[in-house]
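Q: Could you fold this chain for me?
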Amino acid sequence: MAIQKGDFIKLNYTGKFEDGRIFDTTDEELAKKEEIFNPRGLYGGDVVIAGAGHTIEGLDEDLEGKEVGYSGTILIPPEKAFGPINPKLIETVSITKLQNRNVHPGMPVEIDGRRGVVSRVIGRRVTIDFNSPLAGKTVTYEYTIEKLLEDDVEKIQGLLGLYIGMRDLEVEIADGAAKIYIPTNLTFNQRWLMAKNRFASELFKYAGLKEVQLIEKLTAESEVPAPEEPEVEAEEEPSESQE
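A: Sure. Below is the predicted structure, expressed as C-alpha cells.
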C-alpha cells in the first residue's frame, strides 16, 4: 500500500552534508560512532505523520507514494531543507558585548540568550552569524519506511516519542476518546507544555479521535517535586549608629 498524506509511519533515516558528514540519524550506534549521540534522544526510528511537517519539507514530500519497506536517498536543497541563510541574522557587534573577548572565527558565542558563531573579527568589532548551522546547506537523506501504523494506541505512543521522547505511557481508547496517563513530573515539563495542544490536534485530524484526556497519574513510587519556597530577604542587622 502506497503511503498517503496523513498516514502514521515508522521512519529510519540518516542525514548528511554534501561532504558526507552525518549530522542526524535514528541509528544509535552510528550516532555514537559519529559523535553526535544525544543521551536524551530516542533511537530506533521515529513515528511521523506523512505530510504533517514532522520532517523537513523535501523529505516529507518524498514519502508520499512510497511503499512500506522502501529504502532510498534524496538530495534536498536548502529551501526545502533547513532554509536559506538569512542575512538579517548576521550581525556585527562590539567585542565588549561578549563575556569572553578572546574570540576567533568559528567560535560559538551567546549574546542575550541567542547562540551564534563568530564569522569575522576586525579590531574590536565582531561579526556573529545567528543562523542555524544547517541553514543554507544542501543535504542528503537516506531513509527507510519501516512500518505503516494502524493501531491507535501505537500511533499515540509514537507521537509521544516524537514530541517528548517518551513512548511507554499508558493509553486507553474507547468510543473515539483517548485517555493518556501522564506521570506527574511531566506536568512541569516545558517541552510537553508547548507540544500538547499540537499533539492533541493531530490526533483529532489524522487519527479520527474525538476527545483526548490527559490524566495526571500518581503512584506510590511517583517522585513529586517539592514546592519551591519563596525567597525571603534577610533583615539587615542594625548598624551601631542605629542602635
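A (continued): The chain has four helices and twelve strands.
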